[in-house]
Design goal:
By secondary structure, the chain is mainly α. Helix content is 80%, strand content 0%. It contains 8 helices and no strands. The chain has helices spanning 3-81, 89-112, 118-153, 157-171, 191-198, 204-212, 217-228, 230-256. Helix 2 (89-112) packs antiparallel against helix 3 (118-153). The radius of gyration is 39 Å and the shape is elongated.
Length: 261
């Protein structure tokens, strides 16, 4: 083969090899760049998922602690109703205010709750609301009966006379009259018991509560037994609350992963 042609072919082969090498190198570099970009995207997605999980964990922790705090405050305010006066508007208003705060915390906890904790949240909500309802209904009358009974045990003559007047009113079959619901003027049969109760150091609201069931022979005794046992009922509600609270704490620690060392 002619020397010049041979040299030309060798040169062409060298150029072709260089071009081919450049193409292969470019492809390898491009593939490496794609791999690096994908790795960067994967790392970013992993970090984003970890951030979302941490944010959800923090949200659930915050709502659980807020719920437990609000539940405790509501139960404390409810318990104070049993010690308050019959017309203690401030105590009742405070109990309502704190219960409203509990309802808000409960709603937030429901929205953020993990699947394994919803029953425990519902249990706490049920017992807190029930305790408040029972206290609102029973605490004022329980307080009135307790004051009257305590005075009788202390030998207060006016209190003893009032309990006797209440018993005679029931025995006489007097007509029903409830001053707390706008019953109008009392029937004449109530004159003695009203005068007797007014002679006892009771609040006017307590007198009205006692007169509300004064003439009902059986209901009077049932109501008296019910309100006298209101403290026992409150203790039972408080015990149920403590059980529900511990159940929620245990479930929250398990779900949020804080029950380990």
């Amino acid at each position: 083969m002619d020397t010049q042609i041979t040299v030309a072919l060798i040169g062409a082969a060298g150029v072709g090899g260089t071009i081919a090498g450049a193409i292969v190198g470019a492809r390898i570099q491009a593939n490496g760049g794609h791999a690096q970009a994908q790795a960067a995207r994967d790392a970013a997605e992993t970090a984003a998922q970890a951030g979302r999980r941490q944010a959800l964990h923090d949200l659930r922790w915050t709502t659980m602690t807020a719920l437990l705090r609000a539940a405790g405050e509501s139960m404390e305010a409810t318990g104070r109703l049993y010690l308050a006066a019959a017309d203690a508007h401030a105590e009742r208003a405070e109990a309502e205010r704190v219960l409203h705060g509990f309802r808000l915390a409960y709603a937030e906890a429901e929205l953020a709750a993990a699947p394994g904790i919803r029953e425990e949240i519902a249990a706490v909500g049920q017992v807190v609301r029930t305790a408040h309802y029972l206290a609102r209904m029973r605490a004022p009358a329980e307080r009135a009966w307790r004051v009257l009974d305590d005075l009788c045990r202390e030998g207060d003559a006016a209190a003893v006379d009032a309990k006797g007047a209440l018993a005679r009113l029931r025995a006489a079959g007097a007509p029903l009259w409830n001053p707390s619901v706008g019953g109008g003027d009392p029937p004449p049969e109530y004159d003695e018991v009203i005068a007797a109760l007014n002679a006892v150091p009771l609040e006017r609201a307590q007198v009205r509560l006692l007169l509300g069931v004064a003439a009902v022979p059986l209901e009077y005794e049932r109501r008296r037994e019910s309100v006298v046992n209101a403290r026992r009922d409150w203790a039972e509600q408080n015990y149920r609350y403590q059980e529900a609270r511990q159940g929620l704490i245990g479930a929250a620690r398990r779900v949020l992963g804080t029950d380990g060392p």
